[in-house]
């Protein structure tokens, strides 16, 4: 006979159902009564299990409505140059890149002004949907000068890091980068790709990366505000 308390067995079982997608993010957990019938235990046992799920950050409650699965929040510290793919892989997270488009474009007036490059310069434009743990997280549009990166292998970007690819194939060495953050609401097509409402707050992230003081990458990303946070440590 197991020495594990009943409430702990139920906690672990519900946690496994959250992790394997039986209970989706922001979806309701079965009611206390339903759980009591399902596990053949008392309400106090169910409450102990649910209390532990709440304490450990797996669920949240809505008064009068019940208990819901808490979305997983991804945290990005901002103290050095970072790669989205590399940072998440450090935490053993499953990352998928869906290539929406990969083409060579001429700079229009808007991009020419942003990048401080002559109009009609040729750039690679790569648009990717970045998905983590089966949850769409951001739409990333990257612009790379064709005179620095002659050819981009689309297939190699689907499950790997863009920076790793550029380092290994073009000896890229980013000296510094400037990032700006701006709160926005997504457009309809962006909301559909991210599987959110057009009323869900997002963050517009713009990155300007430099090599020997020359701009070699411009990326703007639409990042889900309910799934991703940026953390800055300040010291005196």
Please characterize this protein's 3D structure.
The protein has 236 residues and is an alpha+beta fold. The chain has two domains: 6-69, Arc Repressor Mutant, subunit A; 74-231, Chorismate lyase-like (Chorismate lyase, 3-Layer(aba) Sandwich), CATH 3.40.1410.10. Helices cover 28% and strands 34% of the residues. The chain has helices at 6-19, 32-39, 43-55, 84-90, 109-115, 162-170, 188-194, and strands at residues 59-62, 66-69, 74-77, 95-106, 122-132, 135-145, 176-184, 202-211, 214-224, 228-231. The longest helix has 14 residues, at 6-19. It is elongated and about 70 Å long. The N and C termini lie far apart (56 Å).
Write a compact overview of the structure shown.
InterPro entries: Bact_HTH_transcr_reg, Chorismate_lyase_/UTRA_dom_sf, Tscrpt_reg_HTH_GntR, UTRA, WH-like_DNA-bd_sf, WH_DNA-bd_sf. It holds the Pfam family UTRA. The protein is α+β, with helices and mostly antiparallel strands.
- Tally of contiguous helical segments: 7
Number of strands: 10
**Strand order within the widest beta sheet:** 4-5-6-9-8-7
Known CATH architecture of the largest domain: 3-Layer(aba) Sandwich
Name given to the CATH homologous superfamily of the largest domain: Chorismate lyase-like
CATH topology of the largest domain, what is it called? Chorismate lyase
The tally of domains stands at 2
Question: Could you state the order of secondary-structure elements as H and E?
Answer: HHHEEEHEHEEHEHEEE
Structural class: alpha+beta
CATH class of the largest domain: Alpha Beta
Mean pLDDT: 86
Strand content: 25-35%
Q: What's the Cα radius of gyration?
A: 22 Å
Q: Globular, elongated, flat, extended or rod-shaped: what is the shape?
A: elongated
Low-confidence stretches: none
Largest sheet: 6 strands, antiparallel
Kindly, what is the distance between the CA atoms of the first and last residues, rounded to a whole number of angstroms? 56 Å
Q: Helix content range of the residues, please? A: 25-40%
């Amino acid at each position: 006979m197991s020495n594990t308390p009943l409430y702990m067995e139920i906690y672990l079982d519900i946690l496994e159902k959250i992790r394997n997608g039986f209970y989706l993010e922001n979806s309701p957990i079965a009611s206390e009564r339903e759980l009591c019938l399902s596990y053949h235990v008392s309400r106090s046992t169910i409450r102990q299990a649910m209390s532990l799920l709440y304490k450990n950050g797996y669920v949240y409650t809505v008064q009068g409505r019940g208990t819901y699965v808490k979305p997983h929040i991804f945290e990005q510290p901002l103290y050095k140059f970072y790669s989205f793919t590399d940072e998440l892989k450090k935490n053993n997270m499953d990352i998928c890149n869906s290539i929406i488009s990969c083409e060579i474009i001429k700079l229009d007036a808007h991009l020419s002004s942003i990048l401080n490059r002559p109009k009609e310069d040729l750039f690679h434009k790569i648009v990717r949907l970045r998905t983590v743990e089966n949850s769409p997280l951001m739409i990333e549009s990257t612009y790379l000068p064709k005179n620095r990166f002659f050819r981009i292998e689309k297939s190699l970007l689907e499950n790997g890091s863009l920076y790793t690819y550029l380092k290994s194939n073009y000896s890229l060495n980013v000296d510094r980068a400037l990032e700006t953050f701006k709160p926005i609401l997504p457009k309809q097509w962006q909301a559909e790709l991210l599987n959110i409402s057009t009323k869900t707050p997002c963050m517009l992230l713009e990155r300007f990366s430099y090599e020997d003081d020359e701009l070699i990458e411009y990326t703007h990303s639409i990042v889900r505000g309910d799934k991703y946070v940026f953390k800055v440590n300040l010291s005196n």
